[in-house]
Amino acid sequence: MKQLNLNFTWCKHTIMDAVGNDIFTAIFIKKDGSERKMICRFVQDKGETAIGEHDRILTVLDMSLAKGTSNAFRRINLDTLKSIKHNSTLYNF
Q1: Maximum distance among all alpha carbons in the chain?
Q2: DSSP character for 22?
Q3: Phi/psi of residue 13, each to 5°?
Q4: Alpha carbon distances (Å) from 34 to 17, 43, 59
Q5: Vertex 53, ends 49 and 56: CA angle to 5°?
């Protein structure tokens, strides 16, 4: 597996370009301080038009909830993002 170590200057649009509309795994720190691993898909129009959206928040569709509910959208704070795995490449932040 290829690994890339990146700094936090990566913005939402850079991640969108790297991942596209594919499924990826994100590991990040939740507000309560615990670590979360989520299999998700970036939803471009939802992320771009969400009220209060800014460059440090990534809106995704949580794939574990996608079939069971219409409320499967989650937000990942890019300042707490630890890594993304996509197509055999691990991006560490």
Answers
A1: 37
A2: S
A3: -70, -30
A4: 28, 24, 19
A5: 135
Alpha carbons within 13 angstroms on the beta-carbon side of residue 65 total: 11
pLDDT digits (tens, 9 = 90+) for 17-61: 888 888 999 999 999 999 999 999 887 655 455 545 566 788 888
Domains of the chain as residue ranges with CATH: 2-92 (2.30.30)
Predicted confidence at residue 19, as pLDDT, reads 85
Question: 3-class secondary structure for 25-90?
Answer: EEEEECCCCCEEEEEEEECHHHHHHCCCCCCCEEEEEECCCCCCCCCCEEEEECCCEEEEEECCEE
Measure the CA–CA gap between 67 and 73, rounded to whole angstroms. Answer: 12
Quick: pLDDT tens for 5-16: 776 566 677 787
Instruction: Provide the whole-model pTM.
Output: 0.78
